[in-house]
Design brief:
Mean pLDDT: 77
Shape: elongated
Structural class: alpha/beta
Strand content: 15-25%
CATH class of the largest domain: Alpha Beta
Number of domains: 3
CATH topology of the largest domain: Beta-Lactamase
CATH architecture of the largest domain: 2-Layer Sandwich
Strand order of the largest sheet: 2-1-5-4-3
CATH superfamily of the largest domain: GAF domain
Largest sheet: 5 strands, antiparallel
Helix content: 40-55%
Number of strands: 17
Radius of gyration: 32 Å
Low-confidence stretches: 1-8, 245-251, 371-376, 414-422
Distance between the termini: 94 Å
C-alpha cells in the first residue's frame, strides 16, 4: 500500500495564527482546524473532541466526502470507546497509532471504517485540552502527517486556552462590575436607614407602651393595632429595600434544608403544569445552615416560579442541592470566602436570557417579563442571600435554558459563654432621646435597671468612675465617639461585658472590622421590641 506524503506547511500555521488573532468564535476555529487538517493529511474524516471544564467532551467532525450516516455511527462508537482511549493515553503519554499498536485496537471497540487511524492528544501547561482523531480508508499516514497534527494540535490547544481565559476574564469583569453596581445601590438606599429606622422604632415603642396603659379601651386598642399593622408593613418594605446592602437576617434559626427543599418540591409537583417535568436532585442529610427559613424558602420558590414562567410550552425543571467546599480557584469566580457551603441550583430548559439582560438581572425593578408585578423579586433575592453571607449567580443561553446557583454557608458551632448575676444593670447609650426613653421604659417594665447615657465619652466616664453594669446597648451613630470607637476604648481598659450594638445603618460591617471588638449581638433599627427583649435575656 502506497504511503501518503505530507509536508508541514508554514503557510498553514501562519494563516491559522492570523485566524486566532481576529476570530471571535471558537467554533469557527474548530471548523478551520478540521478543514485545514483534512487538506494537509488527505484524511477521509477527522474528529475533534474538546474536553470541557466538567470533564465531558464536545465532538466536532469533518469528512472529505458526505457520509453523514456512517460518520454519526462511528462518532457514537468513538464516544463509547473514549474511556479506554483516555486510559491508554494516560498510561502511555503519547498518540495512539492503529498500525503501531494494532494488537490493542480491539480494546477500543471501534469498527473497521478506517484502515489506518491515529488519536493525538493535545496539551497546554500539562493539562489535556483536546483529542484529534484522524482516519483514512485506503492509505497510511506518513510521519509528516503525524507531526503536522501534533504541531497543529498544539496551536489549537493554545487557541482553546486563550478563549477559555478570555471568557473567564469577561465573566469576572462582568461579575465585578455587577458587584460594584449593586454595592453602590445598596449604599445609596441605606443612606436613609438611620433616621427612618429611628422614627419607626419610636412608633413601635410608643404603641407598645400605650397598649399596656389603655388595655381596657377597646376602641383605642383597635386604632393602635391599625397603626401597628401599618408600621409593620412600612418596616417590611424598608427592610426589603435595605436588604440589598449588607444586612443581617432578621430572625436566625437552624434550617434543615432537606425539609425546606422537600416542601418546595412538593409544591412544584402539585401546582406546576403537567408539561413541566420536575426532577429533584437533593443530597440526603444536608448540613444545617443558620438564617431565616422564610426568606430562604421565598428565594428558592421565587427562582422556581421564574423557571416555570420561562417554560410556557413545557420543559424540564431541576433542583439540585449538595454540600461543597470553596477553594482558592472558586473564590476567583464568585467572590466567596473559603469554607463550606451548600450549593442549591435551579435549572430550567426554558427560553433563556439574553446577555444584555443577564448583567441587569438583579437590578431593582428590572424584569424580562412583559407583565410583571413589582419587579423586585431577584433584587430582593440577591439581598437576602448576601444577608446570609452567601452568593447567587446566574448562567443562561438563549434557547437552551437558565441556571441559578445559590451558595449558603454551612453552620459551624461557636461556643458562647453566658454570665448569670442576680442584679441586672443595663447601660443604654443612644443620642436619640425619645427612642432611648421608650426602650428604657420597656426594659424597666420587666424589672431591668437602666442607666441612660448619650455619647461614647459618657459611657467611658460611667464605667471607669461609677459602675460597670451587666450589659451595654450602644448605638453605632453617636456624636463624637461612635459606638465602635467606644467599644475599642473599653477593650483597651480591660472592661469586658456583653454588648448589643444597635444601628439604623445596614453596612457597618463593610466599614469596620467588627471582629476586633466584643459584639454579642447586632440589632438593626427599627427595633422589634420582642426580639430585643429576647436578646437581652439571653445575654444577661
Amino acid at each position: 500500500m502506497k504511503k501518503k506524503t505530507s509536508i508541514v506547511s508554514q503557510q498553514f500555521f501562519t494563516d491559522f495564527v492570523t485566524l486566532l488573532v481576529g476570530e471571535k468564535s471558537i467554533e469557527k476555529i474548530y471548523d478551520e482546524f478540521l478543514v485545514r487538517s483534512i487538506d494537509v493529511t488527505k484524511s477521509d474524516a477527522i474528529f475533534l473532541l474538546i474536553e470541557s471544564d466538567n470533564k465531558n467532551f464536545n465532538i466536532y467532525n469533518h469528512a472529505a466526502e458526505n457520509e453523514s450516516a456512517a460518520l454519526i455511527k462511528f462518532q457514537k462508537n468513538l464516544l463509547l470507546s473514549l474511556p479506554f482511549i483516555l486510559k491508554w493515553i494516560e498510561i502511555n503519554k503519547k498518540a495512539f497509532d492503529s498500525i503501531k499498536h494494532k494488537n490493542e485496537i480491539a480494546n477500543f471497540h471501534l469498527n473497521k471504517m478506517f484502515s489506518h487511524f491515529f488519536i493525538s492528544p493535545t496539551f497546554f501547561d500539562q493539562q489535556r485540552m483536546t483529542l484529534v482523531f484522524c482516519g483514512s480508508k485506503n492509505s497510511e499516514y506518513s510521519e509528516n502527517d503525524l507531526e503536522f497534527i501534533e504541531q497543529f494540535g498544539k496551536s489549537l490547544s493554545l487557541a482553546e486556552k486563550l478563549f477559555r481565559t478570555f471568557e473567564l476574564n469577561k465573566n469576572l469583569e462582568q461579575s465585578l462590575l455587577q458587584k460594584q453596581k449593586l454595592e453602590t445601590i445598596g449604599k445609596l438606599t441605606s443612606g436613609i436607614a438611620h433616621d427612618f429606622s429611628n422614627l419607626l422604632s419610636s412608633i413601635f415603642g410608643s404603641v407598645n407602651i400605650l397598649k399596656k396603659k389603655i388595655a381596657g379601651n377597646s376602641d383605642a386598642l383597635r386604632l393602635l393595632e391599625n397603626i401597628e399593622q401599618c408600621s409593620i408593613r412600612a418596616k417590611e418594605l424598608t427592610t426589603n429595600l435595605l436588604s440589598f446592602g449588607k444586612p443581617t437576617p432578621k430572625q436566625k434559626e437552624f434550617i434543615k434544608l432537606n425539609l425546606l427543599l422537600g416542601e418546595i418540591s412538593k409544591i412544584i409537583s402539585q401546582t406546576f403544569p403537567g408539561n413541566i417535568k420536575f426532577k429533584s436532585e437533593i443530597q440526603e442529610n444536608l448540613p444545617e445552615v443558620l438564617g431565616n427559613s422564610t426568606q430562604i424558602y421565598q428565594v428558592i420558590l421565587n427562582l422556581c416560579v421564574n423557571a416555570r414562567d420561562a417554560m410556557s410550552d413545557g420543559g424540564a425543571l431541576i433542583i439540585n442541592a449538595t454540600p461543597i467546599e470553596i477553594n482558592e480557584e472558586d473564590r476567583l469566580s464568585n467572590f466567596l470566602p473559603l469554607g463550606k457551603f451548600i450549593r442549591i441550583s435551579v435549572i430550567d430548559s426554558g427560553k433563556g436570557i439574553e446577555n444584555d439582560n443577564l448583567i441587569k438581572i438583579f437590578d431593582p425593578y428590572f424584569s424580562t417579563k412583559e407583565k410583571s408585578g413589582s419587579g423586585l423579586g431577584l433584587y430582593i433575592s440577591y439581598g437576602i442571600i448576601k444577608a446570609h453571607k452567601g452568593h447567587i449567580e446566574v448562567f443562561s443561553e438563549v434557547g437552551r435554558g437558565t441556571k441559578f446557583v445559590v451558595y449558603i454557608p454551612q453552620y459551624e458551632a461557636v461556643n458562647v459563654s453566658k454570665s448569670k448575676q442576680e442584679e441586672k444593670i443595663i447601660i443604654l447609650a443612644d443620642d436619640e432621646v425619645m427612642l432611648q426613653d421608650l426602650l428604657a421604659e420597656l426594659l424597666e417594665s420587666v424589672n431591668y435597671q437602666v442607666i441612660k447615657v448619650q455619647s461614647g465619652e459618657e459611657v467611658i466616664k460611667l464605667m471607669t468612675e461609677e459602675i460597670r453594669g451587666d450589659l451595654i446597648i450602644i448605638d453605632f451613630n453617636m456624636p463624637g465617639m461612635n459606638g465602635i470607637e467606644c467599644l475599642k476604648k473599653l477593650q483597651e481598659l480591660k472592661i469586658n461585658l456583653p454588648v448589643i450594638l444597635s444601628s439604623g445603618s445596614m453596612n457597618i460591617g463593610s466599614r469596620y472590622d467588627l471582629s476586633k471588638v466584643r459584639i454579642d449581638a447586632i440589632i438593626n433599627k427599627p427595633y422589634d421590641f420582642d426580639s430585643m427583649l429576647e436578646t437581652v435575656k439571653r445575654l444577661t
